[in-house]
Amino acid sequence: MSIGTDPSGSSDPYAITPGYYDLFRAREDALPSVPFFADLTPPGADALEIGPGTGRLALAVAPRARSLFCMERSATMRAVLIAKLAQRPDLRPKVTVVEGSAPAFDLGRAFDYVYLGGVLEHVPPSERPALFAAIAAHLRPGGLCAMDMVLRMPAPDQDERVMDEQDLGECRYILSASARRLGPDLSRLRQTYRTYLRGELVATESVERLHHMHRPEPVLKELADVGLHPAEGDGLAQATPLPDDPGAVVVRKAAP
Ligand SMILES: C[S@@+](CC[C@H](N)C(=O)[O-])C[C@H]1O[C@@H](n2cnc3c(N)ncnc32)[C@H](O)[C@@H]1O
């Protein structure tokens, strides 16, 4: 059994995940929502994705953008993204993948679209102001910013249960998860990947990490504090029609 732990600084909770990440997100409606982030891409935009992971969103945004910068802190997730891009001669000239970590970052350039899918849950609320300031500093006037994981549901608390099963050749992969609520906006999450070969358990790998909840009111206030205001209506968006939609916000930097 191998265990990845939470980044209280040292280890990467995605170190063992990339091999399974897309396998358990093969369904069209898997989260984070690819159509939500892709459809928001301003045509011909210079875009920045924070935490692109294996590139599920990036590969859908890039064809609509003029350029796409991907800033990812996990070496293994970056490796999968780079391997996918290697097979895409159409995208190679315009997608850049760099090592980098929110909240504070300086890429020395500005973008028309900055987005984060499935990333905010990794960011402690105390780091949000620094993250939002960095996003605002990297947006051109009129630029758009979208992020999911801004939601009202309670922090998860559940005993281990099977979330999904996938077959690949003679192997069956089973993903289970459990969560312990540590506070109103914080849980400790454990995901376990079990591999069965012809019915026999041959590998068990677990990952533990903290899971932060972000609420719409403070998020929208802190975005407004750095000059990012609702792009439409109250700024809250439904990323999917699903009942467990991971609520999103879409904001814009004021044009001069
Ligand atoms: C749930 S995955 C989402 C990946 C991708 N955006 C998608 O929608 O499939 C979260 C990704 O964000 C990355 N990540 C988490 N916190 C980050 C941070 N502070 N800076 C940069 N990347 C981060 C993780 O390494 C991981 O690849």
UniProtKB/TrEMBL annotation:
Domain of life: Bacteria
UniProt keyword terms in alphabetical order: Methyltransferase, Transferase
Gene3D superfamilies hit by this protein: Vaccinia Virus protein VP39
Domain Methyltransferase: from-to ranges: 48-143
Gene Ontology process terms (BP): methylation
CDD domains xref list: AdoMet_MTases (cd02440)
GO MF annotation: an example: methyltransferase activity
Protein name as catalogued: Class I SAM-dependent methyltransferase
